[in-house]
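User: Could you check the structure of this?
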Amino acid sequence: MKDFLNWLDVNMPDSISQIVFLLKDRNKWIFAAVMVGIGLLLMPFLLERASEGTKFLAFLSIAGVIGVGVNPLIGSHDGETAMHSDTPHYVCAALCGVCSQLLVALNSPWWLTLWTLYVAYTLFERKADKNVFMAEVICILTTLFFCFL
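Assistant: Sure, the predicted structure tokens are below.
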């Protein structure tokens, strides 16, 4: 287990969005296309599983993931967006994460037990900078399990 955690320390990005910085400027559209594609492909499943009173959370979740994807394309200069900060990115990421987890909590709360994996990971992990990546993975997993199982 310790060897696996050491391997994760070396190879795991700080967050999923860090992938966009590994791409050349002319290829950032790939990250945007993947994020928009994920959002549009998940939308019918989220709406089907959501109760009438929580469908707006599905729309907000998808708006968040699309915002995260297109943010790097909005005029960049030295790694910053046209607004000269990462604020739009963080707002969209928080919107996606919070709304997706609220959607799951209000419709199938037992999927939130996956967050125990995050707690276990943080107990074993020595570096706090990787916790964002793991939180994003847990958000994605709970949302996918909610949609497809």
